[in-house]
Amino acid sequence: MTSKKILVTGGNRGIGFEICRQLAEMGHQVILTARTQDKARQAQEELAQLGFIVQAEVLEVDKPTGFAAFAQKLSDQYQHLDVLINNAGVLLKDKLDFQLVDEATLQQTFQTNLIGPILLSQQLIPLLQKSQAGRIVNVSSFLGALSRMGGNYTAYRVSKAALNAFTLHLSMEYPDLIITSCHPGHVQTDMGGTTAPRTIDKGAETPVWLATASDVLTGKFYFDKEVTDW
Ligand SMILES: NC(=O)c1ccc[n+]([C@@H]2O[C@H](COP(=O)([O-])OP(=O)(O)OC[C@H]3O[C@@H](n4cnc5c(N)ncnc54)[C@H](OP(=O)(O)O)[C@@H]3O)[C@@H](O)[C@H]2O)c1
């Protein structure tokens, strides 16, 4: 297996941390990013204690003004990047209802779940195009699937629906890259809650597979390594 250089956003906890752990275990070169130096270093140390070495970097997904400098730093360091995993996300739980949702909730949700992934992809695509087979994996949700749309979770649902639209759009802009979205399942993280049915390692499985497997189709929405309806 060839070792890939893979950048993960929101890598300090939850599904993102487990994605980093599984990728490092497979022998890939992981760039774990988190929104503060402390969080990035702490996650790096936790992985080191498990025997995995990763690079830790600060990346605030809702602060796109830093993206160009971040991309420059990466390209100074590396010839190419193989995979960007847009994993960081928020589900702000106190304003879930359409009746309650406010501008601040919409702004933060869209900034993190949609605008960040769009602008980060824009900055990193030149480096991804230098890979033999560059990829972007957007960690989305069934809550944003048009085919499963329901009530409640207004900001989150619409942000993930738009993230899926972005995936499809970008796959057409860049046929040389493999660009996918996925639903990780309802996972036992801070976001998913302790009663969620799925373990974190199972939740990380499909994003890891989309980043590394040979038979992945671009412009598709995946659940459990299978193409599913948007
Ligand atoms: N858990 C589920 O059941 C479930 C289901 C469907 C989809 N998803 C998706 O899976 C992804 C991971 O979710 P999770 O369950 O692991 O959530 P989580 O446990 O709440 O972790 C979220 C991660 O995103 C990071 N993050 C949030 N805002 C950020 C920002 N502005 N800049 C950088 N990092 C930021 C968090 O960093 P901090 O520690 O700094 O807050 C944390 O590392 C999300 O995109 C989520 O929407 C989850």
Protein described:
With 230 residues, the chain is α/β, with parallel strands linked by helices. It has one domain: NAD(P)-binding Rossmann-like Domain (Rossmann fold). 41% of the residues lie in helices and 16% in strands. The protein is built from 6 helices and 8 strands, in the order E-H-E-H-E-H-E-H-E-H-E-H-E-E. An 8-stranded mixed β-sheet has the order 3-2-1-4-5-6-7-8, with helices on both faces. Helix 4 (103-128) runs parallel beside helix 5 (154-173). The longest helix has 26 residues, at 103-128. The chain is globular, with a radius of gyration of 16 Å. The protein binds NADP nicotinamide-adenine-dinucleotide phosphate. NADP nicotinamide-adenine-dinucleotide phosphate is lined by residues 9-10, 12-16, 34-35, 39, 60-62, 87-90, 112, 139, 141, 183-184, 186-187, 189-192, 196.
Which tags fit this structure?
230 residues, alpha/beta, Rossmann fold, eight-stranded mixed sheet, binds NADP nicotinamide-adenine-dinucleotide phosphate
SSE map:
Blueprint: E1 5-8, H1 14-25, E2 29-34, H2 37-49, E3 55-58, H3 67-77, E4 83-86, H4 103-128, E5 135-139, H5 154-173, E6 178-183, H6 200-212, E7 220-223, E8 226-228
Parallel strand pairs: 1-2, 1-4, 2-3, 4-5, 5-6, 6-7
Antiparallel strand pairs: 7-8
This protein binds NADP nicotinamide-adenine-dinucleotide phosphate.
Beginning-to-end CA distance, first to last residue: 31 Å
Main sheet makeup = 8 strands, mixed
Uncertain stretches: none
CATH names the topology as Rossmann fold
* Estimated radius of gyration: 16 Å
Number of helical regions: 6
Element-by-element helix/strand order:
EHEHEHEHEHEHEE
**Total number of distinct structural domains:** 1
The helical percent reads 40-55%
The dominant shape is globular
Structural class: alpha/beta
- The CATH class is Alpha Beta
Report the CATH superfamily. NAD(P)-binding Rossmann-like Domain
